[in-house]
Amino acid sequence: MSTTMTTVAARPASHDAILAFAWTSAEFTATDVIAATGLTRSTTIDALDALVELGLLRELPNARLAGDYRKGRPARRFALRDDAAVLVGVDAGHVHLTATVTDLRSRSLSTQRATLVLDGDDAATRARRIIAVIDAALDAAGRTRGDVLAVCVGVPAPVDGDGRSPEHPRGFWARMNPGLVDELSWAPIVRVDNDASLAAVAEGSVGAAAGCRDFVALLAGTRLGAGVVVDGNLLRGRHGGVGEMVAFDHVDGVGNAEGLGTRAVQWATDAAASGELSPESPLAALAGADLDARAVLELAARGDADALRIAERVGMTLARIVSVLGSMFDPQRVVVSGGISAGVEEVVTAARRFLPTDLDLPAPELVASDLGADVVVVGAVAGAAEAARDGALDVWAARAGA
After folding, report:
1. How far is CA 102 from the centre of its chain?
2. Angle subtended by helix axes 305-329 and 345-354, to nearest 10
3. How far apart are CA 159 and CA 155, in angstroms?
4. DSSP for 273-324?
5. In terms of Cα–Cα distance, which of 382, 375, 396 is closest to 89?
6. What is the rounded average pLDDT of the residues 295-299?
7. Residue 5 half-sphere exposure, CB side, CA atoms within 13 Å?
8. pLDDT tens sequence across 366-398
9. Going edge to edge, which strands form the sheet with 225-230?
10. Is 1's pLDDT higher than 50?
11. Mean pLDDT of 261-288
12. Cα angle value 169/173/178 (rounded, 5°)
């Protein structure tokens, strides 16, 4: 969800076209703009001057002063003022918070992290902690709230088009998204979205689904969540519930929405308690407080027989999940994303073997992400950049008219 806090008068479309060109270009001339946009020279020059006056573009020294001049009148050169404001991307997870501040070209300036104490996790406290992490990241970048153009936050809850989450029977979604659209209203542009949806934004922009128009990003560590892209469009639904995985409560062989990491740890713990693990197995030595999903999967990758059996069982479950997602959304690709992706290759390999061959539709390609645990914050930065590109001219025009 993206909002600007002000309403401004209509402006020439040339301003939007040139700013969009500048955002993805290095230095450029009016001739470069004309070739890319088809605008006339006079319109281009007028728009460039207007954007320089607003402070969104800067005019660079001409070619003669830069030492590149050869003959003729030197062309005026321009560039986006990438330091004119900052973007903030936030992964507001159930337990872990991460905030990254970037310039307008999404180049990182600082990152701050925090861990929540869940037994004191009421909505108001969570909102304060999220904002505190944002403020700490801004301070580390040498910037303030007044420098922020856009904030994008990913939360583990369905989020509708207005950035709000529906009621949950146990109040969980209201805690995960404690009115963040309102709490962050000091920023000109605010986008709050489901964390798996932002994982899909990340995978589609710089990850394993780049260039793919039909895919699912499956966050599968602690709980299952899916960001769904069909025909190049990120799906949301009326209440933001497209990626909710509660339907797996009713799927044989899956049974609930617990993530792959949770299952790996539980099945390894159960195997240790029942004496199924070899006494010489490194997995047996880890069973207990030190056991986590990454440890199980790393042992599987190193060939430990007990860990491999756990990974294969998790892979069978993943194959069921992928089959259902394939039937529901017909994706070209399913990307296993999040922190679990760092060691999930053995699970993915097993799942590929177990994918049914008798489905009505071809089974989707199954791959592991290489974006790791920061996939949501990467997507949040991309989401903030998208919202900023759409709304920057409105914000700057409003400031100029204030």
Report:
1. 14
2. 60
3. 8
4. HTT-S-TT-HHHHH-STT--HHHHHHHHHTT-HHHHHHHHHHHHHHHHHHHH
5. 382
6. 90
7. 16
8. 999 999 999 999 999 999 999 999 999 999 988
9. 233-234, 225-230, 215-219, 333-337, 365-368
10. no
11. 88
12. 130
- Asked if the model's pLDDT at residue 4 lies above 50, the reply is no
The answer to whether 54 and 115 have CB atoms below 8 angstroms apart is no
211 vs 151: CA distance, rounded Å: 25
Place of tokens 């790393």: 298
Helices (H) and strands (E) in the chain, counts: 14, 14
- The mean per-residue pLDDT over the stretch 78-91 comes to 97
Among residues 124, 134, 122, 144, the alpha carbon closest in space to that of 92 is found at 134
Average pLDDT across the chain, whole number: 91
User: 60 vs 19, 27, 30, 53, 68, CA distance in Å?
Assistant: 16, 8, 12, 14, 13
DSSP 15-26: HHHHHHHHHT-S
Q: Is 105 helix (H, G, I), strand (E, B) or coil?
A: coil
Number of Cα atoms under 13 Å in the Cβ half of residue 113: 6
More confident residue, 170 or 114: 114
CA distance 334 to 344: 14
Q: Is the pLDDT score of 351 beyond 90? A: yes
Q: Give the number of residues written for the chain.
A: 402
Distance (Å, whole) CA 79 – CA 31: 14
Report pLDDT for 2. Answer: 42
Residue 152: name the closest of 100, 215, 208 by CA.
100
The amino acid occupying position 16 is D
* Residue 70 scores a pLDDT above 70: no
pLDDT at residue 268 is higher than 60 = yes
CB 152 within 8 A of CB 391: no
Nearest-angstrom CA–CA distance, 85 and 103 = 7
pLDDT in tens, 133-172: 999 999 999 999 999 999 999 999 999 999 999 988 788 8
